[in-house]
Each structure stands twice: as structure tokens, then as C-alpha cells.
Amino acid sequence: MQGRLRLAVEVWSDFTGDLDLPVTDTSHLSLARLAGRATLRTALKPGAWSSEVITAGTSQLEVQTRVLCSPGSDREHCATQCDRAVGSGGHWRCLEDGSAVCKDGWQGTHCDRPVCLSGCSPTTGYCRVPGECLCKVGYHGELCDQCVPLPGCRNGFCRRSFECRCKDGWTGLFCDKRTCNRLINAVLTLSYLH
């Protein structure tokens, strides 16, 4: 990362020549501004010290700089774009350009939503970790795409959870009663009488 740092410098000069004395009384000091402006054009690599000498007239000033990255940012580039992913459980990584991308198996703005097993029903399934498919109440199957019929349903099926749709020839709440019992009894009775 190339960085630029603007630095305004004021230099205090001690004209008494006694530089070893502690400065407690500044009345004898004069304020001299470093003539000119300087812009540091140093490669600011996080953690490393960089040194540059600024010269103006007969004065020189050595400036040392070091960049420290803020918590949660990419330690190699101090990319601020990666700060948005702080608190996501570490399911992200920073690219060289400083942008944040989710690690494999994670999605969402903050990389906090796992990617479920391929084919897992988005309405009746969910996951807590990448690659799994957990079923909501009333659904089952590897992809949570099969409904659970009403408990006690005998000769029926479901299209929604806890439903009992009777197959042909059956009726009742649990599809446990034949619809043609009287007709069968009448046919049996007639055939017995003849």
C-alpha cells in the first residue's frame, strides 16, 4: 500500500546553546517555522517503521512513521473495507485490494449466513453450518421437501405439513373409513340372496 502523510512542523530553537538543561521556562525560546512544506511519500507497510528526512534551508528533520491497523481489518493492507465484517465470526477474508469476501460455505453482507446443502428447501429447510439441511417442524427428508402427514393418518397423504388428504375410497379425519362400505354390503347381500 502506498500512503501519503502530510505533516505540519513547528521547530523550537534554543538560542542559549544549553541543550542539556530541561526546558521549564520557554520565554527565551523562539518559534521558528520550518521553511517549506513536505509531503512524505513513503511506502507505509503496516507494522514496519519508515524513515524520511525533510530538508528546508539549513534545517533537517528526520521523521519516522509506522502504520498500525485497526482491530478487525486486514493486517497486511489495513483495508478499511474489511471492517464491515467485524463480528461475523471470522467467516470472511480480505483480498489484496482490501475488499472483504465470504469464505467458502458462507454468504450475506456480513458473511454470517451458512450456505445449506444444495437443493435444501428454502422454505421448509435451514442450516446452522455450511452443507447441512435441517427440517422445520412438519417436514422431513434429506432436502426437507416432504411433508409430515397428520399423526394417525392411515390411508392418506399430505401436500402441506400435518394434513391428511384421503386416497380414493377413504374418508374421515384420519382417512380410516371406507367410502363404499354400504355399496359393498349391498352387493354382497344381493349376491347372497340369489
UniProtKB/TrEMBL annotation:
<keyword id="KW-0325">Glycoprotein</keyword>
<keyword id="KW-0677">Repeat</keyword>
<dbReference type="InterPro" id="IPR002049">
    <property type="entry name" value="LE_dom"/>
</dbReference>
<keyword id="KW-0812">Transmembrane</keyword>
<feature type="disulfide bond">
    <location>
        <begin position="69"/>
        <end position="78"/>
    </location>
</feature>
<keyword id="KW-0245">EGF-like domain</keyword>
<keyword id="KW-0217">Developmental protein</keyword>
<dbReference type="GO" id="GO:0043005">
    <property type="term" value="C:neuron projection"/>
</dbReference>
<feature type="disulfide bond">
    <location>
        <begin position="135"/>
        <end position="144"/>
    </location>
</feature>
<dbReference type="GO" id="GO:0016020">
    <property type="term" value="C:membrane"/>
</dbReference>
<dbReference type="GO" id="GO:0050839">
    <property type="term" value="F:cell adhesion molecule binding"/>
</dbReference>
<protein>
    <recommendedName>
        <fullName>Delta-like protein</fullName>
    </recommendedName>
</protein>
<dbReference type="Pfam" id="PF00053">
    <property type="entry name" value="EGF_laminin"/>
</dbReference>
<keyword id="KW-0472">Membrane</keyword>
<feature type="domain" description="EGF-like">
    <location>
        <begin position="112"/>
        <end position="145"/>
    </location>
</feature>
<keyword id="KW-0732">Signal</keyword>
<dbReference type="GO" id="GO:0007157">
    <property type="term" value="P:heterophilic cell-cell adhesion via plasma membrane cell adhesion molecules"/>
</dbReference>
<feature type="disulfide bond">
    <location>
        <begin position="82"/>
        <end position="94"/>
    </location>
</feature>
<dbReference type="GO" id="GO:0046982">
    <property type="term" value="F:protein heterodimerization activity"/>
</dbReference>
<dbReference type="GO" id="GO:0007154">
    <property type="term" value="P:cell communication"/>
</dbReference>
<dbReference type="Pfam" id="PF01414">
    <property type="entry name" value="DSL"/>
</dbReference>
<feature type="domain" description="DSL">
    <location>
        <begin position="67"/>
        <end position="111"/>
    </location>
</feature>
<dbReference type="GO" id="GO:0048666">
    <property type="term" value="P:neuron development"/>
</dbReference>
<dbReference type="GO" id="GO:0042803">
    <property type="term" value="F:protein homodimerization activity"/>
</dbReference>
<keyword id="KW-1015">Disulfide bond</keyword>
<dbReference type="InterPro" id="IPR000742">
    <property type="entry name" value="EGF"/>
</dbReference>
<dbReference type="Pfam" id="PF21700">
    <property type="entry name" value="EGF_DL_JAG"/>
</dbReference>
<feature type="disulfide bond">
    <location>
        <begin position="102"/>
        <end position="111"/>
    </location>
</feature>
<comment type="function">
    <text>Putative Notch ligand involved in the mediation of Notch signaling.</text>
</comment>
<keyword id="KW-1133">Transmembrane helix</keyword>
<dbReference type="InterPro" id="IPR051216">
    <property type="entry name" value="Teneurin"/>
</dbReference>
<dbReference type="InterPro" id="IPR001774">
    <property type="entry name" value="DSL"/>
</dbReference>
